TrEMBL record:
It holds the Pfam family 4HBT_2. It comes from the Bacteria. Gene3D superfamilies: Hotdog Thioesterase. This is Thioesterase. InterPro entries: HotDog_dom_sf, THEM6_lcsJ_thioesterase.
């Protein structure tokens, strides 16, 4: 199923659950793996990311922040993604995605999306995202009213890995 159609369906279904959860809640979204999501027999790797993005949209609906984000002129942009695959997901399987907010800073929000198929963890997608209004970054606190006592170890490890990869990345090429 195309990402646009999946997002539209999630939006319509999510309206039934609009504003029923807090930002610190885990939100569950369910998908069916269709032939458009699979290669020969299993879910294609890029679809895990699409499921996570749609689950993030559903999360914003459940916590009642999807429309405030839109009204403010903001959108959400994924800055970094990390996927850990545990097992393949067969065609026509029902996939449950559990989405929760791990942490926020003054610029970014960190989400964990755990994908389950047949009751077993199939993958985990970590997402570092920003709310953007044009070129400006909007603090996640504007939409996600959650305070955190400390940075979770999972976020610390991921940030350290991201910083390490940036240090070893080649310098961008200047044009002109």
């Amino acid at each position: 199923m195309s990402g646009l159609l999946r997002n539209l369906l999630a939006l319509l279904i999510g309206l039934l659950h609009h504003n029923r959860k807090n930002a610190d809640s885990t939100v569950t979204t369910t998908f069916w793996v269709t032939p458009l999501d699979a290669g020969l027999k299993v879910l294609k790797s890029d679809k895990y990311l699409q499921y996570a993005e749609t689950a993030q949209l559903d999360y914003l609906l459940h916590i009642g922040q999807f429309f405030p984000v839109l009204r403010s002129g903001a959108s959400f942009v994924n800055v970094a993604l990390q996927v850990q695959f545990f097992r393949p997901v067969p065609l026509f399987s029902r996939v449950t995605v559990e989405t929760r907010l791990l942490y926020t800073t003054d610029k970014c929000a960190y989400f964990a999306h755990r994908l389950f198929a047949k009751g077993t963890l199939a993958a985990e997608v970590l997402v570092k995202m920003k709310f953007k209004r044009g070129r400006a970054t909007v603090a996640p606190a504007a939409f996600l009213a959650v305070s955190f006592a400390q940075v979770p170890e999972q976020v610390q490890r991921w940030e350290a890995a991201l910083q390490g990869s940036q240090a070893t990345a080649p310098a961008p090429v200047k044009k002109g």
